[in-house]
Amino acid sequence: MKKILSLLLAGATALAISAPGYAGKDFDAIKASGVFKVGTEGTYPPFTYHDASNKLTGFDVDIAREIAQRLNVKPEFMEVKWDGLIAGLDAKRFDAVINQVGVTPERAAKYSFSIPYTTSQVVLITRNNNGDIKTFADIKGKRSAQSLTSNYGQLATSYGANLVSTDGFNQAIDLVVTGRADATLNDRLSFLDFKKQRPNAPVRIVAQQADASKSAVLLRKGDAELVEAVNKALQEMKDDGTYARISEKYFGVDISK
User: Fold this and answer.
1) How does strand 56-57 pair with strand 49-50?
2) Distance CA 161, CA 150 (A)
3) Which member of 3, 64, 134, 184 has the greatest number of CB atoms within 10 A?
4) What is the pLDDT of residues 190-235, one digit of tens each?
């Protein structure tokens, strides 16, 4: 009996010792390599896009760079179409997805999320001369330009829209402008940035959801240490004013307020 008890205690001790190493395996690998690999689109201004010199930039990109810096590693960005971002995380091509990933119960069941770093609202965008679409319900049977697996695509489908596949925000807007799509559901902050850049574009917001959506860093489950480190970095950015500085750079205001 004593021998069995000793074996059980030894096994429990071994599990206790090995559990933290298992729990932190992704973070351990990141620290060992010195690189934080981030999946992002690169086609979704002002969050992740290429500037006039073709440099990857944007609000989410700057947030990712700051997180990496506070983890004491270098960021490495891997640009993937939206529909391949989560699959890339599953395949361990990168350590995180930082691309305005909406927090949903379905995703939270399979993945870990950081604390939210943006809150925004879904808007319905049409051409200026479109008088048929005034509410979300009006897109039933209409063509809505969306990334097929995005939150916006799912929402458009729930309203009965026929989806026209896009690679990102700019293409969605171009499809609406050229009449190849009747509307697009997208992020209010993205649209405001777009209109700042192209004030004469013949598109407008015709409806806005009252409920705000939250976006966070998407991580694989099973590494609480990495989630905690990312959360700590995000909170420090808000506390020391870094988040406000990045926010004002892209939106002219501190969007955390």
Assistant:
1) antiparallel
2) 14
3) 184
4) 888 888 788 899 999 999 998 888 999 999 999 999 999 999 999 9
DSSP codes of every residue in 102-168: EP-HHHHHHEEE-S--EEEEEEEEEETT--S--SGGGGTTSEEEE-TTSHHHHHHHHTTPEEEE-SS
Q: Is the pLDDT of residue 257 over 60?
A: yes
DSSP state of 201: -
Please report the pLDDT score of residue 23 as a whole number.
52
Token reading at 159 = 């309203």
- Determine the Cα–Cα distance for residues 125 and 148; give it in Å rounded to an integer: 17
Structure tokens at 204: 């407008």
The token pair that represents 218 in the structure block: 């998407």
CB 238 within 8 A of CB 145: no
Q: What angle do CA 237, 116, 151 make, to 5 degrees?
A: 140
| Domains delineated in the chain | 25-119+214-251 (3.40.190.10), 120-212 (3.40.190.10)
DSSP string, 57-120: ESHHHHHHHHHHHHTTSEEEEEE--HHHHHHHHHTTS-SEEEEEEEP-HHHHHHEEE-S--EEE
Q: For residue 78, with 0-12 CB atoms within 10 Å meaning exposed, 13-18 middle and 19 or more buried, which class applies? A: middle
